[in-house]
Design goal:
By secondary structure, the protein is mainly α. The chain has helices spanning 12-28, 39-47, 65-79, 91-101, 104-111, and strands spanning 2-3, 32-35, 59-62. The chain contains five helices and three strands; from the N terminus they run βαβαβααα. It is elongated, with a radius of gyration of 20 Å. The mean pLDDT is 80.
Length: 126
C-alpha cells in the first residue's frame, strides 16, 4: 500500500525507484495499491511503466486511502477463505442490499456490519 496523500510531487529518481516495484511484485506475487495520488503523479508513474502489463499481480489506483485499505482487507479475507458469508452473513442479505443500493461492493461492505443471531420467540437477543 502506497499512500501518496501528502505527496505533491515526485522527481525522476523517485519514478525510477517506483518502476522497480512492479518487477518485485511479479517476482514475489503481491499487489500494489496506490492511494491518494494526484493525476499528475499517476501520469508520471504511467510514463515510467509502473501501471504497465502484469502477469498475475495488480497495480491499482484508489482516490482515497480508505478505499485502498478496504480493497486490501477484502483481498486478504479472500486469500484466507474468510468472506462475509464466513461471518454468518447470508448471501440473501447481500442480494437484498444490492437490490436496494444497486452496488454489490457497497452491499457487501454494509452487510459486514450485520451479525446473524438466532433468537427464540420471546427473547430480546441483546
Amino acid at each position: 500500500m502506497l499512500d501518496f496523500h501528502h505527496v505533491s510531487q515526485v522527481d525522476t529518481s523517485a519514478i525510477k525507484a517506483f518502476t522497480k516495484l512492479p518487477q518485485l511484485s511479479e517476482q514475489d506475487q503481491f499487489n500494489i495499491c496506490v492511494m491518494g495520488a494526484s493525476d499528475e503523479i499517476v501520469a508520471r508513474l504511467e510514463q515510467g511503466g509502473f501501471f504497465g502489463e502484469s502477469s498475475g499481480t495488480s497495480r491499482i489506483r484508489f482516490p482515497q486511502l480508505e478505499d485502498g485499505v478496504s480493497w486490501c482487507e477484502q483481498e486478504l479475507l479472500k486469500m484466507l477463505n474468510i468472506g462475509l458469508y464466513g461471518r454468518g452473513i447470508s448471501s440473501e442479505l447481500v442480494d437484498l442490499v444490492t437490490l436496494l443500493t444497486g452496488d454489490r461492493a457497497r452491499a457487501e461492505t454494509l452487510a459486514g456490519y450485520f451479525i446473524k443471531q438466532q433468537v427464540a420467540a420471546g427473547e430480546s437477543g441483546l
